[in-house]
Design brief:
By secondary structure, the chain is mainly alpha-helical. It contains twelve helices and no strands. One of its GO terms (biological process) is nitrate assimilation.
Length: about 230
């Protein structure tokens, strides 16, 4: 039975424990999540069996493998039509389950444009240019960059938007979505969250992404990307 969306079980509010993985395993997990979290067009869906084979043969840590299997073995994934329908019902209709990471930090405020520029600058700092008709903060794109580009820069992008990723995971868990397994597996490959990030995550649970506040710089200045700085620092 799907849980009522008006409430979030307290068990879903607990952050996912980090799991030790090798660089190669992290790249595989992030590349798989990049493809599986993207919109399931027929060309992408056709690669699911190959991804499944790669994941099951990679000797991943059991907790990570179990989370990935939650998606790969879910009934929703059995047919493209069912998966498309479920994808739209979750990611297109739920404000707290967006794939666009900067939205959790800035909402639809004027700060959003600056935040998006910082993603583009981060990719350029890693020697890459965006070659896709998609906003640069799109989680599958960030994960592809993590798997194939500069892992240090990608790690900073993900860590600086960790509270948004945790809110996405929590929303998916509360909606009984198999996509929760993919985001949980991702979180397991990231460093443990600190107390400040946890507090921001809990505020997001309560308040949701911010709304426009004319004349108020609630988040402080968002400076251009510089390697070694926390991108989401306030």
């Amino acid at each position: 039975m799907m849980l009522p969306t008006s409430f979030i079980p307290t068990s879903h509010l607990k952050e996912t424990a980090s799991v030790s993985v090798t660089v190669e395993q992290r790249q595989l997990i992030h590349m798989a999540a990049s493809i599986l979290l993207d919109y399931p067009v027929p060309e992408r869906y056709a690669h699911f069996p190959l991804i499944r084979d790669e994941i099951y043969s990679a000797k991943l840590p059991t907790p990570v493998l179990n989370q990935l299997a939650r998606f790969l073995e879910a009934p929703h994934v059995a047919t493209l039509q069912e998966l498309e329908k479920h994808y739209v019902s979750i990611f297109d209709l739920k404000r707290r389950a967006t794939m666009y990471l900067s939205y959790y930090l800035t909402g639809d405020t004027r700060k959003r444009g600056t935040a998006l520029v910082r993603f583009t600058e981060a990719y350029r700092a890693g020697g890459c240019e965006v070659d896709r008709d998609e906003l640069p903060d799109y989680l599958p794109m960030v994960l592809e960059f993590s798997a194939t580009g500069d892992t240090q820069i990608a790690g900073e992008l993900l860590s600086s938007h960790r509270e948004g990723i945790e809110l996405l995971r929590t929303t998916l868990e509360s909606s009984s979505s198999p996509y929760a397994g993919l985001v949980s597996a991702l979180c397991m490959t990231l460093p443990a969250i600190d107390q400040e990030t946890k507090e921001r995550y809990l505020r997001l649970i309560t308040d949701g992404p911010p709304a426009e506040m004319v004349g108020v710089t609630a988040l402080g200045p968002l400076e251009p990307f510089t390697l070694g700085e926390t991108l989401g620092s306030r």
